[in-house]
Amino acid sequence: MGTPDLYVSGVGVCLPETVTVEHAVSAGWYPAEQAELHQLGGAAVAGDVPAPELALRAARSALARSGRSPADLDLLLYASTWQQGPEGWPPHAYLQRHLAGDRVLAIQLRQGCNGMFAALELATGYLRAGPRGRAALLVAADNYGTPLADRWRMGPSYVAGDAGSAVVLDTEPGFARLRSVCSASVSAAEEMHRAAEPLFPPGITQGRALDFAAHTERYRQRAIGDGSGTGVLVTVHQRLAEVIDQSLAEAGITLDDVTRVAVMNHSQSITEQMCEAALGLPLSRSAWEFGRNVGHCGASDQILALEHLVAAGELGPGDHLLMLGQGPGVVLSGAVMEILDSPAWARQPAAGNGARGNGARA
Amino acid sequence: MTATDDAAALTAFIRERLVPRELQDRFDETSPLLEWGVLDSISTAVLLGFIRRELGVIVPAAQIEPANFADARSVAAMVRRLAPLTPG
Question: Which of residues 184-223 of A touch B (CB under 8 A)?
Answer without folding.
Answer: 220, 223
